[in-house]
Design a protein that fits this description.
Elements lengths: L11 E11 L1 H4 L14 E13 L2 E11 L5 H15 L3 E7 L3 E15 L2 E16 L2 E7 L7 E4 L4 E17 L2 E12 L6 E2 L14 E13 L1
Antiparallel strand pairs: 1-2, 1-12, 2-3, 3-5, 4-7, 5-6, 6-9, 7-8, 8-11, 9-10, 10-12
């Protein structure tokens, strides 16, 4: 039985699906945190592969779609209460449309450790995060004189740099087929946000939405 760097591993490709979990400011629902994203647990899936050019050292790449949800009624009520307090308003209401949807294209060095039927892959990667949409909110405040009735936090899109750390445990089902459990941490600065209809700087104003997630997936990989 061979262990670690002495065991040559094969290049591979595969597919996976699972859960994307929002973290840090992206997960936060704090009205007073202008980077709070109200991101949710959602679906993720994608393709993954690696080419080994020297023993167990290689280059890995992945293409991943992830959906981190939309504002729910609790979020809307939380935001409305915050705006009411900030503006000293008689009442406020918040409605939301659109979801967090993005695609990540990442590439980086990978090293693999093998033991029997198991292979542990460790990868650091960087690349492009394409954000297609974020929640858009319409905010109504009533009974104030220093702000127009409705204003908006627009849905945002952008292409930004992303950074990732990944650990994957592969279990050998046959000579060239592995069941793979994968955990991937992702960070990007996220899109800039446009606000419309504001006539004052009172209250919550979001200008940037950093995205931080950890994606846990299960899939199959196929040796080449």
């Amino acid at each position: 039985m061979t262990v670690g760097a002495r065991a040559q591993v094969k290049s591979y490709f595969g597919f996976f699906g699972g859960v994307s979990n929002a973290l840090s400011d992206f997960k936060s629902t704090d009205y007073n945190n202008n980077k709070a994203g109200f991101g949710k647990r959602g679906l993720t899936y994608g393709l993954d592969g690696a080419y080994y050019f020297y023993k167990n050292l290689g280059i890995g790449a992945s293409i991943t779609y992830q959906d981190n949800g939309e504002l729910n009624q609790t979020d809307a009520n939380n935001l409305a209460a915050g705006y009411t307090n900030s503006f000293g308003a008689d009442n406020s209401a918040v409605t939301g449309v659109n979801r967090y949807q993005s695609v990540n294209i990442l590439l980086g060095p990978q090293y693999s450790f093998s033991y029997g039927k198991f292979i542990l892959d460790v990868r650091a990667a960087a690349g492009i995060v394409k954000v297609y949409s974020s929640p858009e909110t319409t905010i109504y405040v009533g009974g104030v004189t220093n702000q127009t009735t409705d204003f908006y936090q627009k849905s945002a899109s952008a292409t930004v740099l992303g950074y990732s750390g990944t650990a994957a445990l592969r279990y050998k089902l046959s000579d060239n087929v592995f069941l793979t459990l994968r955990g991937a941490y992702l960070y990007s600065s996220g899109p800039s946000v446009t606000n419309q209809g504001r006539t004052t700087d009172i209250g919550r104003i979001v200008t940037k939405l950093p995205i931080t997630t950890i994606n846990t997936t299960l899939g199959l990989t196929f040796g080449l």
